[in-house]
Amino acid sequence: MKFLILNGPNLNLLGLREPEIYGKQNYAALEQFLRDTCEAEGVECVIAQSNHEGVLVDRIQEAYGLFDGIIINPAAYTHTSVAILDALKAVQLPAVEVHLSDISTREAFRSISYAGMACLATCKGHGFESYKEAIQYLKTYLLKKKEN
Ligand code: CA2
Q1: Ligand 1: distance of its center to the CA of 22 in Å?
Q2: Cβ atoms of 97 and 123 closer than 8 Å
Q3: What is the 3-state secondary structure (H, E, C) of 72-110?
Q4: Predicted TM-score of the model (pTM)
Q5: Is residue 39 within a helix (H) or strand (E), and if so which, with residue range?
Q6: 31 CA distance to ligand 1 centroid (A)?
Q7: Burial classification of residue 8, based on how many CB atoms lie within 10 Å of its CB (0-12 exposed, 13-18 middle, 19 or more buried)
Q8: Strand locations in the chain (E)
Q9: What are phi and psi of 46, to 5 degrees?
Q10: Residue 146: phi, psi to the nearest 5?
Q11: Does 55 sit in the ligand 1 pocket, CB within 6 Å?
């Protein structure tokens, strides 16, 4: 089982500001957490971060045929990007949306998620653990699908 884990704009700045919202750990620590979690779950992963909407769209398109599923934290593009929504719909790979913070209890504009409209589930509000929940959700979904 192979997952593409995509992170959107400014997540490379984790740990530098707003630790009360996003935690104290930096992006390198997030990548290490993702590698360790995937290894423990017996899942292969490729992790990518971009500050550019088109690059994220390209990565989603290129995932077709190479990955079993996508975990995506589109960051600010969550709330604006129909392009990412359309790319996720186009590739038809099972996808799970992730957020470090709970976007439903923050500013009103963060409660709209376009990407989430193409995702099986949203894991949010639990910091790095949100990613673990998403990885486990996607793994369980794919194992159940294989059984049927
Ligand atoms: O909670 C999340 O994971 C978000 O996707 C993070 C985004 C935000 O725009 C979403 O609404 C929710 C922000 C990404 C990182 O932003 C930083 C800002 C300053 C310092 C470090 C990171």
Answers
A1: 7
A2: yes
A3: EECHHHHHCCHHHHHHHHHHCCCEEEEECCCHHHCCHHH
A4: 0.97
A5: helix 27-41
A6: 16
A7: buried
A8: 2-7, 44-49, 69-73, 95-99, 121-124
A9: -120, 130
A10: -65, -35
A11: no
Residue 21 CA, closest ligand 1 atom number: 1
Q: Residue 83 and residue 71: Cα distance in Å, rounded?
A: 17
Nearest ligand 1 atom to alpha carbon 101: 1
Tens of pLDDT, residue by residue over 69-102, are 999 999 999 999 999 999 999 999 999 999 999 9
Query: Catalytic residue positions?
Result: 22, 99
Contact call for residues 95 and 56 (beta carbons, < 8 A): no
Kindly report the CA angle at 135 between 105 and 128, in degrees rounded to 5?
50
β-sheet bridge partners, residue 98 = 123
